[in-house]
Structure formats: C-alpha cells, structure tokens
Amino acid sequence: MNNNTPFTQSISLKDLGIENAKIHYQLSANELHDMTIASGQGIETSTGALAINTGEYTGRSPLDRFIVKDNITEDQVWWGKVNIPFEPKAFEALYKKVTSYLSDKEVFVRDSYVCADPNYRLNVRVVTETPWANLFCYNMFLRPEQKELENFTPDWTLLCVPSFLADAATDATRQSNFAILDFTRKIALIGGTGYTGEMKKGIFSALNFILPVNKNALPMHCSANVGDKEDTAIFFGLSGTGKTTLSADPKRKLIGDDEHGWTSENTVFNFEGGCYAKVINLSEENEPDIFRAIKKGAILENVIFKEGTNEVDFEDVSITPNTRVSYPIYHIDNIQPSSIGKNPKNIFFLTADSFGILPPISRLTPGQAAYHFISGYTAKVAGTEAGVTEPQPNFSACFGAPFMPLHPTRYAEMLSKKITEADVKVWLINTGWTGGAYGTGSRMKLKYTRAMITAALNGELDAVEYKDHAVFGLAIPQSCPDVPADILNPSKTWKDAVLYDQKAVELAQKFKANFAKFEEFANPEIMAGAPKA
Fold first, then answer.
1. N or C: which end of the chain has fewer CB within 10 A?
2. What is the predicted pLDDT for the residue at 8?
3. Nearest to 233, CA basis, from 347, 350, 351, 341
4. What is the pLDDT of residue 6?
5. Residue 110, number of CB atoms within 10 A of its CB
6. Pick the catalytic residue: 24, 60, 345, 425?
7. Which residues contact 254 (CB under 8 A, 6 or more apart)?
8. What is the pLDDT of residue 384?
9. Residues with Cβ < 8 Å from 245, sequence gap 6 or more?
10. pLDDT of 260 higher than 80
11. Which DSSP helix (H) or strand (E) runs through 481?
C-alpha cells in the first residue's frame, strides 16, 4: 500500500496514560516527510529522500536493552548479558514517567502490523515523538489498508521518546537511554535514543519470543527470495557477509532482506514492510537495488553531503560508519508481492572469514547446520579497531544473538527439525578471504560467490564429487560451474599448506571455545557437527 493519502480518523491515547496530547494519527509518508523538513529536523536530498540525524546514538546500545522478568518470561528467557532482566515495578514506574512526559505534547501515532502471513499477524500501535521516526515505522512495518484501521486493536504498543532521559539512580537503568520489552503488558518502551533501529529490533525481539513459544514458528534473522519454480532460499549472515547483496538476485523475487518466520505449514514470511540497509560506500554499480531505492519516501540516517550540495557522500563516515537508509519494500522492483514464500529448499549461512580458512562453499549435515547456526561465525578484519593487528573471530548465536530472548539451542533444534522434514539443503558460504588471511590473501570475488549460489540453487552441485575438510569436516564440492576448481579447496590457495593446516586448527579451537557455553544444552546431533580438530 502506497499510503500518501491523508487519513482523517482521530484516536485517543488515554488508555496508555497519555493525556491532552496533540495527536497526529496515521499521517501519510509525504506529510511526515514535509513536517520533518518544515520543523528543521531533516533535509531533502538530491534524490528526494529525507536525511536526518539520530543524535547521540547512531547504533543500537545492547547493554541498555532489557526484558521485564515476570511470570511469562522468568522460566523461558535465557537471562544474561544479552537478555538483561528488569523488575516489573521498575518498569511500571518508568512507563508512567514516560507517558506523563508525553502528555500535553505533540505526538505521532501509527497503526501498523508485522508478519505478512495473516495467521501470524501482530498489530502494533506506534507512538513517536518525531515525524521522521513515524515515517521510519511506516517504511519498516506493514501498512494496513484504511478499511482495516476502522476496528484496529493493537496487540503490542511501541513508544519511542528520544528526548526523555532516564535517571539511572531512580529508574533502574544503566544510563539515560533504554529499550525495554514487557511481555505481560505487551509494550516496547524506548527512551533517550533517536536511533531508529531500536524500534525495528525491539519488535523483532518480541517476535523472537512470541513465535516459537506461542505459535510453533521459527523466527529468523535472515533474508529470503523465491525462484520461478517457487523454491524459497534463505540467507543468514552477520553484517558485512553479503546477506542483502546475495539475496538481491535479478532472477529471483525478494521476499525480504532481514527478518522472517518459518511456519509449521512450511512457508516463509517477511516480518516487515521495508528494508533497512547500510549505505557506507554505496554505489549504483555494486548495490543497484539499494541505490535506486533512495528516493522520496526513503530516510537516510547520519549521512554527510558533498560540499555545497544536497548530494550524499556515501564514503563520508565522519558521523558514523553505520550510515543507513530505510525504505518501503515497494521501492524495490523485483519483489514477491505477498512477502510469503513456499517450499524452502536451500539455506545459506554466510560468513566473511578473514582468516581465509573456510571453503567458499560447503554442504552441511543437519548437525553441522545446527552447530554453525548456534555459532553464527564471521571475522573482523585487522585494522578495524585500535590494536587489532590480525583477524578477530566474531560469534553471534543464530546470526542475531542480541535479538534472541530464548536459549540459542531452542532455535537451532527447531531449525534442524524443519531442515529434516522439508529436505532442505544447507550450505556454508565464505564470502571472505582466499589464499591467506586478510593482508596476505584476497577477498573472494563476488562473481564466484554468485556462481556458487546459483549452482546450488539450480541443483548443479547435487551430483558432483565431495571431499570432507580435514579439520572442520565440511563437505566441499570438487567442481562448480564458472568457478576455478582450485578456489573450492582453500588449502590449495595458500602458498604454505602446513601453515594453512596450523591456522585451520587454531580457528577450530576458537569455534570450540565459543561453543563451550552451549554444550550442556546441545543434543548429540548438534555436538556431532563440531570441528574434528
């Protein structure tokens, strides 16, 4: 729905404890765009997109994300550094402060929903302090038709109030900013930060609890697309591994770029109605879909203009390297209109291994798939942080640990079951280094990675010869159309085969050290997927 038509219905927020507010309800994308500019909170770029600055916070703040510990969550959530408990009484007191703060002020309200499959739909009422935050939610959440709004009842409420600063001494927060989920009251409460990603990931985190616990559906931090034969492919991967790039395939329709559910009916559906992409070093040549989506209706965050113009300099990271754009999915041409795919047949785990050890493509057993899913591995390159002189492993369980309230093995066991029941092939794709580690080897060519994925999707790797990796036990195809054979076997790309073996064992030990905290919860099949070294 391209909602640029003004909506005239009015609502009250008294049930939320917000009194006498000036409410802007369900404004169109154009209205929110214009109000942001008129209020001096944003600038229109040369392509018609809106550019805004999120303030002090230009990314998520994981240490300030909390979940209320109550009867619903106490025995379900995996409490710890990722899921930090918050007392119900403290939440109630803070919530009253926030709603009192919003009373008598101007607020922007949007009724929306998440989960494209009607059987899993969750209605979300969004209350924001700024018009551009409301436009972000228009882009990122699904957009109901006007007739659906007449009897709209929210299942969850999201409040985002960047200018409200908590007092850590009295509000039980760590500092002035916070993002808190209350599953009893069904509220996501965000304050002290203007970073829009907190809203998106707050609702994602709620779904990562609701879907497996209440709906027997697997939530996934992944992109997905569908082919002409209605075969769905799923792409997991952390930042910088190619998840958005590789799922954007001109021969396949995009279901979504980041958040999906896999149902017991064996369908895959998008949670969202838009895309939220990094734009650092963006170019039309390398990322044509994203580049062309940056037009009227899109929101650019924390970007810098070329001197004397309103043209964005995508290479300028003087505010943050985490420059981003949000846009509604209909800004992309080749999309799956329903945002639902059937018949999942291939899963790709993407990793940018800057150690240069993992094969560019390998086929995984169900146990290996669960092990690598829980591990969620990629590697930072040397030089990205002060004092980092060699590659550093980065493990994020389920390829999205900061958003997973349950223990990672619960998601992994659901994934393994679905892989087996649906006869899905699982592949590990290394988009990182070959011929040595970062600084010695070179980045795997994108054209080769695309050729490998295409071959896997087309079934061209089903009948080729495979050999197991000596250390990781991964099945490596010995041939692949349009890819040199030597590239497929990483040890052959290194000048020093003995050094390769040594480094492979070292990386395997890092995998095992990371996995130690999951071992007591992992079943034998998952443990059998571990490296052999």
1. N
2. 56
3. 347
4. 54
5. 26
6. 60
7. 223, 224, 225, 247, 248, 329, 332, 334, 335, 336
8. 43
9. 286, 287, 446
10. yes
11. none
Mean pLDDT of 309-332: 96
Average pLDDT over residues 206-226: 97
Q: Please identify which of the residues 69, 201, 331, 372 carries the catalytic annotation.
A: 201
Quick: pLDDT tens for 323-343.
Answer: 999 999 999 999 999 999 998
Structure confidence by residue, pLDDT tens digits, 90-102? 999 999 999 999 9
Query: Mutual orientation of helices 497-515 and 366-375 as an angle, nearest 10°?
Result: 80
Interatomic CA distance for residues 1 and 455, integer angstroms: 35
pLDDT higher at 33 or 416: 33
Distances (CA, A) of 251 to 226, 274, 450, 457, 509: 9, 20, 12, 11, 39
Does residue 324 carry a catalytic annotation? yes
Question: 137 to each of 320, 344, 475, how far by Cα in Å?
Answer: 22, 29, 43
Let me know if 244 is a catalytic residue. yes
If you average pLDDT over residues 113-130, what whole number do you get? Answer: 98
Distance, C-alpha 330 to centroid of its chain: 19
Q: Which of these is catalytic: 65, 221, 253, 410? A: 221
Category of 324 on φ-ψ map: left (φ > 0), alpha (ψ -120 to 50) or beta: beta
E runs forming strands in 135-248: 156-161, 178-182, 187-191, 218-226, 232-237
Among 258, 372, 378, 418, the active-site one is 258
Instruction: Given the residues 241, 244, 267, 323, select the one marked as catalytic.
Output: 244
258 is catalytic: yes
C-alpha to C-alpha distance for 365 and 342, rounded to whole angstroms? 22
**What's at 146, amino acid-wise?**
Q
Q: Which of 194, 78, 185 is nearest to 132 (CA)?
A: 194
Among 243, 331, 407, 418, the one annotated catalytic: 243
Whether pLDDT at 522 is above 90? no
Percent of the chain exceeding pLDDT 70 equals 96
Three-class SS of residue 42?
Answer: strand
Structure tokens at 355: 């150690």
Q: Is 221 a catalytic residue?
A: yes
Range from 165-174, 381-390, 459-468, 512-521 carrying the lowest mean pLDDT = 381-390
**Residue 75 main-chain phi, psi, to 5 deg:** -100, 5
> From the candidates 12, 39, 170, 239, which is the catalytic residue?
239
Question: Which two structure tokens, joined as six digits, stand for 360?
Answer: 């560019």
Rg (the chain; Cα; Å): 23
**CA-to-CA distance for 9 and 128, rounded, in angstroms?**
18
